[in-house]
Specification:
CATH superfamily of the largest domain in chain A: HUPs
Largest sheet of chain B: 9 strands, mixed
Order of helices and strands of chain A: EEEHEHEHEHEEEEEEEEHEHEHEEH
Number of helices of chain A: 8
Oligomer: heterodimer
Number of strands of chain A: 18
Distance between the termini of chain B: 56 Å
Radius of gyration of chain A: 22 Å
Largest interface: A-B, 96 and 88 residues
Largest sheet of chain A: 7 strands, parallel
Distance between the termini of chain A: 66 Å
Shape of chain B: globular
Low-confidence stretches of chain B: none
Strand content of chain A: 25-35%
Number of strands of chain B: 15
Strand order of the largest sheet of chain A: 7-11-6-1-4-5-12
CATH topology of the largest domain in chain A: Rossmann fold
Helix content of chain A: 25-40%
Helix content of chain B: 25-40%
Structural class of chain A: alpha/beta
Order of helices and strands of chain B: EEEEEHEHEHEHEEEEHEHHEEH
CATH architecture of the largest domain in chain A: 3-Layer(aba) Sandwich
Structural class of chain B: alpha/beta
Strand content of chain B: 25-35%
Number of helices of chain B: 8
Number of domains of chain A: 2
Strand order of the largest sheet of chain B: 11-10-9-12-8-1-6-7-13
Number of domains of chain B: 1
Bound molecules: flavin-adenine dinucleotide
Mean pLDDT of chain B: 90
């Protein structure tokens, strides 16, 4: 008899909704499961059961959904959520645990890994099963994106966080699965006085956007930045920045792309007035398409651009805005 | 915290890292080759030290630095002292080399426990070499403490701390009492450079060295052998794309080329 092999995806919820990144993880789990023929489990925590939402997890690839219910999940506090996830994880004994490399995932996964006395590989960009030993093969960028490391884990469960935006979720509404509600009414939070979430509405989230338009030191002033924002809006893009733009106070730190900022993997990355220092590349070189605008033809950014436009940023953006508007007129007719 | 009006004990963990871009990999072990590479304090650890110092100045108390690494890491402990720590402890032992995040966190938690208890333990959000961001949360788990990651600001109000952390959609503000662990991201706070006096003090301060034996750590649990994960292989990333570069053309021509690029890929 073959042992049942389980891959558990740790689901992330925000205000009662399952995050898209969790569906991405379900797809990764399914791809792996095809090689080991086991089961894909989805474990999530919510304050209130929403069956429709739980069924979505099945449609996106879960065979079984385990939902822990407790008020604590509304607070977005990984260490407290971890306490509620530990008992079901210990009972389910998954061979592999996956979670998204989000601010939440990158906090709760290491917390759980230490509690489970096992290894964890951060920010994987690809996962596989070794056909020889059946172990999880974890591939991740390291040393500022200069190398790719292949990592394996001796202990069980084998745990990995996976970068968002790399694996588009796969929806199949005909899928069937099982849902189990696990209530836990323990009050875990005597030490906590308050948790408040401030949503930044005017800013599209960098790591969740299909298109990212980033500005660098070549965006010299507010008026150039306004043009760039206009372009971002037209392209339905998030606005990113190089560290220099942040340092100059023209952008906020959460917008910084790069080694000490965020890693993005959008379909299109448009770098405007960015030289392409290795620390910046570390955060965006995984983008599917890269377009660069820079007046210096020797700028290193052109080496990794699919399309490079040499010239003044302001002039080129102004033209792009005009040209794109033309299209809008045509299609409106 | 037991009583804030007395002393707040703050531990800050710092790491020595190679200047990025200069890093080399040992092809056999897949770990960082340190010899001949310029080394520096992990940039986000400086942010951690800044926040720790602000807290110390606000509530009083002591601030102690810990680092695990080769003997050369003594330098980053001196940096930490110059940035406001009163003492520095260096965990250095060849038997601990090549520990992964689990083993490293285990060693650090054992050390912190030995010199604790702490009200606040502060880490940089991640080190620019390993780049995992896992050590802070793992230490918190080993010590059974709450952890708040991606912290950019901390304000003290009486006995409670107001912690501001980044999340994908904006910010989260948490009010909590110590003890807790923080992992700090680069915030808005202005970096205050050490004065000459700070630097002299740091230079003269003895650094306490600790090895596995002193810490009572079973070496089977740490180092390359004791780490649950291992690097099987590493490959250099070659980033070159055969792109088209347009130059000496009118902005309009380039704008049209960009539009075509978008249309061909279904992005418009
Ligand atoms: C430890 C460490 C971590 C770091 N982390 C990050 C990070 O996370 N993210 C990051 O971005 N950087 C990071 N850096 C900094 C990085 O090394 C570079 O300094 C930075 O990326 C440069 O930003 P930039 O390209 O905007 O500016 P510059 O290098 O100054 O380049 C500006 C570019 O704009 C072009 N330009 C100027 N005027 C115009 C114009 N009118 N039209 C068109 N083009 C124009 C110029 O030709 C030039 O190529 C880090 C550095 C260190 C040491």
């Amino acid at each position: 008899m073959r042992l049942e092999r389980k891959i558990l995806v740790l689901g992330e919820t925000f205000q009662g909704k399952i995050e898209t990144t969790s569906f991405e993880m379900l797809r990764v789990a399914q791809d792996l499961n095809q090689k080991i023929g086991g089961e894909v489990l989805f474990l999530l925590g919510t304050t209130q059961v929403n069956t429709e939402e739980l069924e979505r997890a099945i449609h996106y690839g879960a065979d079984r959904v385990y939902c822990v219910v407790n008020d604590i999940f509304g607070m977005l506090l990984p260490h407290l959520s971890a306490k509620l996830f530990l008992p079901p994880i210990k009972e389910l004994k998954p061979e592999i645990i996956l979670g998204a490399a989000t601010s939440w995932g990158r906090t709760i996964l290491p917390y759980l890994a230490a509690k489970l006395h096992t290894g964890l590989t951060a920010d994987c960009t690809s996962l596989d099963i070794d056909p020889e030993d059946g172990r999880l093969v974890q591939i991740r960028p390291a040393i500022g994106g200069n190398i790719m490391a292949t990592i394996k884990t001796r202990t069980l469960p084998q745990m990995a966080s996976v970068r968002p935006n790399l694996f588009p979720p796969r929806l199949d509404t005909s899928r069937q699965g099982e849902i189990k509600i696990l209530k836990d009414t323990t009050n875990y939070n005597p030490e906590l006085l308050k948790s408040e979430i401030v949503i930044q509405k005017d800013q599209k989230e960098l790591t969740a956007s299909k298109v990212v338009v980033s500005g660098g030191a070549g965006i010299k002033n507010k008026s150039n930045l306004e043009l760039l924002s206009k372009l971002a809006e037209k392209l339905n893009a998030a606005l990113g920045a190089s560290r220099k733009l942040v340092e100059r106070g023209l952008a906020n730190y959460p917008q910084q792309v790069g080694l000490s900022g965020k890693t993005v993997n959008p379909t299109l990355y448009l770098a405007v007035g960015i030289s392409g220092a290795i620390q910046h590349l570390a955060g965006m070189q995984g983008s599917q398409w890269i377009v660069a605008i820079n007046r210096d033809p020797e700028a290193p950014i052109f080496q990794i651009a699919d399309l490079g436009l040499v010239g003044d940023a302001r002039e080129i953006i102004t033209s792009i805005l005009e040209v794109i508007d033309e299209k809008t007129h045509e299609s409106a007719v | 915290m037991q009583n804030l009006d007395k002393t707040c004990r703050i531990a800050v963990c710092v790491k020595q890292v190679p200047e990025i871009g200069e890093a080399r990999i040992n092809p056999e072990t897949g770990t960082l080759e340190r010899s001949g590479v310029p080394l520096t304090i992990n940039p986000l650890d400086v942010a951690a030290l800044q926040i720790a110092r602000l807290i110390k100045e606000e509530v009083g108390g002591e601030m102690v630095a810990f680092s695990m690494g080769p003997i050369s890491s003594e330098r980053v402990l001196r940096d930490a002292i110059a940035w406001g720590c009163q003492r520095g402890y260096l965990i250095s032992d060849p038997r601990l080399a090549a520990s992964d995040t689990y083993a490293t966190s285990y060693i650090l938690s054992k050390t912190l426990q030995k010199f604790g208890p702490w009200d606040i333990i502060v880490f940089g959000e991640r080190a620019i070499d390993g780049d995992t961001g896992q050590v802070g949360p793992e230490v918190a788990a080993f010590l059974n403490l709450p952890v708040f990651s991606y912290v950019t600001e901390v304000a003290v109000e009486k006995e409670t701390f107001s912690i501001k952390r980044m999340i994908e959609r904006g910010w989260q503000i948490i009010k909590v009492r110590p003890p807790f662990v923080l992992t700090v991201s680069r915030g808005k706070s202005v970096v205050r450079l050490p004065t000459l006096k700070d630097k002299i003090r740091a230079h003269e301060m003895p650094i306490v060295k600790l090895d596995a034996t002193a810490l009572g750590i079973a070496t089977s649990r740490v180092g390359l052998e004791g780490s649950p994960t291992w690097v099987q292989k590493v490959e250099k990333v070659q980033v070159t794309r055969k792109g088209t570069v347009l130059r000496d053309q009118s902005p309009k021509t380039m704008a049209l080329a960009f539009k075509k690029f978008l249309e061909e890929r279904g992005l418009l």
